[in-house]
Amino acid sequence: MTSAISGPAFGQQAQPTTPPLGSPAATITIPGDQLPPPPQKFGGKIERDATKSTPFWPARVVPPKGAPNVLLIITDDSGYGVPSTFGGVIPTPALDRIAKDGLRYTNFHSTALCSPTRAALITGRNHHSAGYGVVAEQATGYPGYDSVIAKDKATIGRILKDNGYHTAWFGKNHNTPEYQASQAGPFDQWPTGMGFEYFYGFMGGDTNQWEPGNLVRNTTAIYPYVGKPGWNLMTAMADEAIDYVNRINALSPDQPFLIKFAPGATHAPHHPTKEWVQKISEMKLFDDGWNKLRDTIFANQKKLGVIPQDAKLTPWPKDLIKEWDQLNADEKKLFIRQVEIFAAFVAYADNEIGRVIQAIDDLGKLDNTLVIYINGDNGTSAEGQPNGTPNEVAMFNGANPGVEEQLKYFYDAWGTDRTYNHMSIGWAWAFDTPFSWTKQIVSHFGGTRQGMAISWPKGITDKGGIRNQFHHVIDVVPTILEAAQIKQPDMVDGIKQSPIEGVSMMYTFGNANAPSTHKTQYFEMFADRAIYDDGWIASTKVLRPPWVTGGIKLPDPADYPWELYDLKNDWTQYEDVAAKNPVKLKEMQDLFWKEAQKYQVLPLDSSVAGRLVIPRPSLSAGRTSFTWTRPLTGTPNGDAPSVLNASYSFKIDVEIPQSGAEGMLITQGGRFGGYGFYILTNKPVFTWNLVDLKRLRWEGPELTPGKHVIEFDFKYDGLGAGTMAFGDYSGIGRGGTGVLKVDGNAVATETMEHTLPFILQWDEALDIGSDTGTPVDDNDYSTPFTFTGTLNKITLNIDRPKLSPEDIKRLEAAARAAGDGPSADASKSAAEAAAPQVSGDIGLSLLQKVELRLDKREGCRKQAQARDLGIVERLQFVRDCMK
């Protein structure tokens, strides 16, 4: 053995298997301290004559004998009280099955947000250590927030692959930097570059489950739904995973696998099939409303033993969310529809997960498969706003129709391909029972407590057991490694590895009462934070409800007030004991700052939506002019040139054949927000889709056969994104005038009152020559709408506004007058950003409403003064601002 391997350490630890080394079927188990392992030394004999020589084949690397298969399942945006396994009313038989065959974990935690939890899950390091302090789309230029998993943090995929596992990833990938997600790569931060040999899934935070414009196989964009009405990604990815496990079993039945299965469910948009909508609707689970639902879940949890019998249900937030009995009939009707679609998505996804589990069982492999099923990567999402939304893209741009409009235009379409839907915040709070708060909030367990079940028939004998030890998502990697008897490598690709920061949970497999080995854990998200230490948790007060993405001024993160909870006697964070234990609170606060320094948490930043528009590296960064001379599809938003909050001009050279032409020239976004420049029955058309609530259209006369130059020129009226540096969001989302030209002549002119301030539909791309995903206007065309003429050249020039010295002086003066530095964040237009949008008027007292209105008026007046307007213009500005 020693002679076969280069390097003495390798030779001392590597374990040969039969047949003997050098034979074609030889295998070895490597020590794993260095990945990839050093080349194996030739152990045969070479003479001049092959008949006198002895061949020697390198041995195939295999894991230690008995290493289990691993099925790692993580769903999306689903709190502790969602699944039936942890007291919920929504049936989740697949999760029930894993819990019945193994263990339920009642004290397991996420990071409260998508990308961060997933980075921690695959690396075994804290999310800031892995570069994911926030989601990829909000990355900033600090080590803890740049959305890059550094090379000293090899993923579980890479470690197991180099130790002889098959590795595959299905579903959501939210761990590739937004600016590296194009077909130009680089691909080292894609799943296939992080150790997963096969990837079938979508890039980014969420996707349209009916028509996912960001779906890829390995690194190639694919569109399998085209021409297949009723196709749904949830079923497609289960089919892909089942096909994969059968394929590798046929080819290599003795080689174990790691499969990460990560559905888009139940992140918005909630897109279940009609079959599941009907099943859930017929169950009438939610007719009594969210307050009684919460009581039901709480009672179920005590019956199941997944919360202590003396646990207290945290209070309903009456000051933020209406109680069910306060709603009118229209609100109840709409909100029940919303939650039934959500619940159908939960049940549908669990059913497809169950199919994957059953496929493994059918192959006779479930007995030695470590199944880790994590319900949710954070608490249930409250990003749907008080009234829910038919279009999540609209919500992130500060626009949302009211209840009456939703009932009229979207009720029957809810959950179909015509909505990008999300539910009301009341349901989100209820589904995080028994805890308070929701996704985005790390200081309270509604945002971080996830129900998890683990089964491994060969390794866990306490079937149906419950485990209450404190654990965190960073503990999954060391658990898998211990089960597989594989060590963390010291070196990967010549780079020394940072220590894994989680601990293995395997000690709990056989001992329900063992004390937790995860003693200390920090939490931080958008400056909301907490520190857990051996049964205590110190938490900052929640100063920004998660459905408020902007327009609220927060104090310096260092000045946040703190709470303290004794979790040994208070499972749900019901009683704040900070006043009774000031010394303990100070000790915990000091510990937080120590952990924050250790794990790259600094600098703290409370902004949310504002991070969406800050400059980041990309293929388009620093450029103002772009040229295309041939069709090209699939350039994601992170690498595509952005025309938001700027003036811009498209110039396109085309040739129309004698028979006429139609088709897409250039588009970005789709049905739920974006623009398209196309030829429709020989006429040039430019359409702005304003998040499916309004469409503006420029149309020219019919083009004659031959060559033409068609242009769209837009002049933006605002000061641009630069105002945000002064806490002023008046520069974004402003209006402008667009002119459509044919051969130098203006043929259509329209004024836009408002433009999109923050983001286009993120699951779709910039396409040239055809349209992938969904149309910007379904009334005009269906995808792919390939251009049938000749596209010679497209030029895009962007003129971003620049602040003048006078602009800067005014903005600085306004900030001083308002007592503000840069505001925490905004997702509204400047007119709305002046007010502290705590929760609309949901649950506010009359006094609070009056105070909000007075605050808003004062903010509007200060903005008007800073603009040096005349008296008439100033009054008009304040009037518009108040609207």
UniProtKB/TrEMBL annotation:
InterPro entries: Alkaline_phosphatase_core_sf (IPR017850), Sulfatase (IPR050738), Sulfatase_CS (IPR024607), Sulfatase_N (IPR000917). It comes from Bradyrhizobium cosmicum. Residues 1-46 are annotated as: Disordered. GO terms for molecular function: hydrolase activity; metal ion binding. Keywords: Calcium, Hydrolase, Metal-binding. Transmembrane segments: none annotated. Residues 68-486 form the Sulfatase N-terminal domain. Belongs to the sulfatase family. It comes from the Bacteria. This is Arylsulfatase. Pfam families: Sulfatase. Gene3D superfamilies: 3.30.1120.10, Alkaline Phosphatase, subunit A.
